[in-house]
Amino acid sequence: MSLITAVRVSRAPFMALGAIGVYWGTLAAMVPAIKAQTQASDAQFGLALLGAAIGGMVAMYLAPRISLALGRYILPLLVAVMFVAMQMPAFAHSVPALFVVLVALGATISSLDINANMRLSQLEERHGMHLMNINHAMFSLCFGVAALFVAGLRQAGWSVGQVFPLMGVAVVIMGVMTWEGRNWRPVDPEPEGAVTPTELPWLYIILTGVMLFVSFVGENATEAWSALFIERELGGAVGHGGFGPSTLGFVMAAFRLLGQVTTEKLGEERVVFWSGVLGVIGSLVIASAQSQGVVLVGIGITAIGMAVIVPTANSLLGKLVHRQQRAIAISRAWLIGFTGYFIGPSLIGFVSQGFGLRVAFVCVAIMVAFIIPAVVTIKSRRAAAA
Q: So which residues are the signal peptide here (predicted)?
């Protein structure tokens, strides 16, 4: 299977994930500016980030219903809503205001993210192709480009109120390309006489949720705090912090493209297991780094580890559940897992307030390690059922 074919088949979710990458890359590079604008302490900023978790959890729960109601219009409409939400950080000049803004951002971004992934899972089954890694590579590539570009804007003196509207233009352009038109159709109907299971496979959903949770903890903790780590802990110049999240994005993009091939050859469980090991090592390197070069190496190792866990876990769960259960199973796994995308940065904030950013990244390494027993359990259960 060629990468071009994979992109063509999955164009709409491909562009949706790219738009999400532009948003997150912009936010990650602007964290020092937003934190200064709100005059928040580390703990207060971490608490505000929990607002995004609240909004995200509501969106994850409602995602299957919203997807069913809006059908082919779901992705372009959600991108439009995301563009509006992107303008809100300019109005956050206090911690309570930032909390409200992040609730709205968490809900809109999470809704678009889960619907893009549910659509991908449908397309994987329909075409018999692995599509997750290349689509998530698009997210990481756009994340890295946006973070690097915004770092340059910050060095040039651009403010929060100037950066987000500009980057929103790129989001709108990508949103136009999420329209599927006649190519869209819902989940394929069941063959006549086929029986749909009445109970969800909660063990697989929970274990996949654990994989997603720890992956998001490692990924977004690094996204949200690496810029601050470089500029505050290591004395980097204004704007140099953007090299942290941009490194994460570029390395993740490259290894997600590689994961498009390795997952098909090695299998999902093996890929996720060793990715978790690398994620632990990368977080420990960040925690111990004494120079910008070393911290970027640690971010790179973390990126290699985190790159394929989320897309590969999505594909794995899609194979473990019945097709009629796929949307709700993925949404429930993401309801568990996506909270890590926000709890990770919040955890960093609380620990950093009391013990410093280095200890906080050690905590991230410990949490990422939980992915290993989750993978082992799924593998043993599948072997026993075979």
A: none
3-182+200-385: CATH class:
mainly alpha
- Please state, in angstroms and rounded to a whole number, the distance separating the CA atoms of residues 108 and 80: 10
Longest pairwise C-alpha distance within the chain: 67
Q: Are 337 and 283 in contact (CB under 8 A)?
A: no
Q: Is the dihedral of CA 74, 75, 80, 84 positive or negative?
A: positive
173 burial type by CB count under 10 A (0-12 exposed, 13-18 middle, 19+ buried): middle
From first CA to last CA, the distance across the chain in angstroms is 28
The per-residue pLDDT for range 370-384, each reduced to its tens digit, is 988 988 888 888 777
Domain ranges, ordered by start, for the chain? 3-182+200-385
For 246-313, the three-class secondary structure string (H helix, E strand, C coil) is HHHHHHHHHHHHHHHHHHHHHCHHHHHHHHHHHHHHHHHHHHHCCCHHHHHHHHHHHHHHHHCHHHHH
Measured in whole angstroms, how far is the alpha carbon of residue 334 from the centre of its chain? 11
Q: How confident is the model at residue 71 (pLDDT cuts 50, 70, 90)?
A: confident
CB within 8 Å of 268: residues ≥ 6 apart: 312, 313, 315, 316, 319
Whether the CB-CB separation of 122 and 12 falls below 8 Å is answered with: no
Are the beta carbons of 374 and 251 closer than 8 angstroms? Answer: no
d(Cα 218, Cα 161) in Å, to the nearest integer?
29
